[in-house]
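Researcher: I've been going back and forth with a colleague about how Adaptor related protein complex 5 subunit zeta 1 might be arranged in three dimensions. Neither of us has a model we trust, so I'd like an independent prediction. The organism is Anser cygnoides, in case that matters for your notes. Sequence below.
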Amino acid sequence: MFSAAAESFLRQAREAQPEELQRFAARVAAQLQGPEPGPEAAACLQRLHLVVAASKYPRRLDGEIVGLLQKVLCSSKCPEQIQLLCAAILREMSPCIDLSLSCDNIQDTKLLSLVSSVLLAQGDKKAEVAAVGQRIVKVLEGRLPEGQSSRYLLPVLSNVISLSPEALTEEQTNVVSKKMADWLRYASIQQGVAQPSGGFFSNPRTRQPGPVTEVDGAIATDFFTVLSLGQYYTEDQWLNMQAFSMLRKWLLCYGGKGLNAPNSGNRSEMDESVMSMVSTTSTSSHLLPPKERLREKAFEYCQRLIEQSNRQALKKADGDLQKACLIEAVTIMDIICKQDSSYVYRAAAFLKVLHSRISGDATYARALLPIAQFFLNHGEMAAVDSDAIYKHLLTDIPAQLFHNASLAFEFVLFCKENSQLFTETSSIFRQSFPNLFKFLAWNSPPLISEFVDLLPFLLDAGTAIEIFHLLLDLPCLTAALDVQMRSTSASERASCDPAVKPATCLEAFRHPLYKSAFQYLLRIESAPEDPPERLIPLRQLLGSLASSPRVVQCADTVPVLLELFFSVVAEFADGPLINQLVVLLLQRSDQLYEIPAFKDDVHRVLSSQLVMLCKLHPALIVELSKELLEFSGTVSNIQNKEAVFTHVVWAIGEYMSVSYDKRCTVEQINRFFETLEAVLFEVTQVRPLASIPSYAPRAITVLMTALTKLAARSQDLIPRVSLFLSKMRTFLQSPAVTSVYCEEDREEILTRATELLNLLKMPSVAQFVFTPSVDVARSRFQKEVNDTLPSALRIVTRLLEPAPGFVPG
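Model: Here is an independent structure prediction for Adaptor related protein complex 5 subunit zeta 1. You can compare it with whatever you and your colleague have in mind.
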């Protein structure tokens, strides 16, 4: 957050009108046209830069001031601060139509860096990017004048290859590759010399610089790297550090080219391996082509960094730098091995030892990702059993560090990008899905997009049921992780008496009564044989955390993932799996974490997905008749989970037909009819005014429609349902009902009852509409009939109830 003064400055800068800006620009121009711009000119340029940069809308300056800024920028007499500010203003105004800068004839490397930064900021102009890149390479290739430094040019070169890798020719990339190899390997191991200040007390005699040191304070005995420390650094040491910072990008852009050259393409893998081993000496290394030599030096550099990472840093900042360099070194090794397989064997042995060294240290968790990436890419070629590496990564790290938000994102992104490789090479990935979901449970909003991409790779016939349970219990998992974290805090340790029932979640975490339930919910790998019913008491216990913002955020992600779950499962599910899912869907609809909005959303998703499962496997209505009868015969389900109940009743009415399953019998139809009839009777029974419950009108209309469909298929039932429908008007006109249902709801129920009753007056029509033949049931016509059934009912009603004044002929 900015301070109040800074906020005030920013507001003034954003609110500056164009007229004010032009007047101020004229004042700046006057300052710059003086004999020698000084502190006042610098202050004015700083304010101008603030005004130009503070607004998201582009600011425009007159061509005269733009030309003056360019002139001052290129003037060798201007102070460096003035030049920096001029370049910053010109960059902020990009793209600038009045720009006339060129880097062609600039010899000064600092000025070339500034001018290039302005040119590269002009947008997608490939010609300018190429011109800048070629000029930078030309300057790097030649011998620099005294006092000039190449280190100002490498950041510009890095920007060039980011914007347009094709800007450099093969010859130019060879030039830079040769330079980078020397910068990486042959930097001085002596510290730089401090520049004398020139003050009265400055000592004209400078001390001889000492050697650079390692992060643990020991004198460095091997070549210089970014982990070599000194009080001052020499020019080649700065170039060494800059070259490493852009090495990964350079190898990705240019390192792979030339591998298929005639001389190298015919060599066998053994020849390459021998060549790689021989080229470790400096003599043979100089004989290699530039790109191969760069790979060799880069590989040595990464080996040296990994060795340096084993030292105990004296300062925390140096320790953090060690870990960052370790990650980069392993990543670069992986790239080198992709470009030249002869390095794989050396790298695999080296990284196997590294993994053994750091796997027990949680502070190195991020470094385990590129190591695992290496073995995913090259483990088969290196003939290395990598399962232990994957198992440690996918089990220990999520369980211990799920609360680390940045690691969670990197970890899940790594899994998403390698999900195809994981599923092809190791079964551990799918077995570890309970652990991966801990990241999502604790960091729901930032990770939902990644999990949408990841979930399909975790699902198969073996994991579908367990993942279904886990998705429904995801908010409960969040609450359990919260309890786990608080239980490890010394300030919140709770005593545990096995004889006393725990009163809080913290006490329950260690209590034998709940211990197994917590262990199951927080498991690190798949356990399909364990019954999830053990979580029922735990959901009730964790209800006290239902209002936690983290738990609520997690609950909001479940409906999205549930819909994705069913869409993926639909691609491979067979009849038995669909039946199993439907049974669990009915069971779990009232076994959810107590968040009202969460339960409503889940019921909505489950009900819509039930319809999809029935369409995939209509025979489930017959095969699961016992479960469906039990569920649809429970009146309380209408109020507790109306959406699921309504869709179950609809599915019974739609698919309990011989058109969908030859095993459907009249006895089964009669059993469903009697069950639904009893429920509708209970719902529409007239009671005293004080005790009548309110049921959703949709549930009543769906019950009536389902009974009518079943009666059309077993026509002995038509008189019973007709009698029932004829009594609906009396029911809806009773005072007790009118006090509960609004006029619009009563009209909806009565209209549907009248339409169904009229349709039953023509049994043959009702049978065709509700019980089509097998061929018609699968036809487009029947789908349209089902989709437009209310319209069909209204047409029949109008036919049977002529409008007033109609006289039959």
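Researcher: What would you highlight for our discussion?
Model: I'd start with this: The longest helix spans residues 316-339. After that, consider the following. Residues 258-283, 776-788, 803-809 have pLDDT under 50 and may be disordered.
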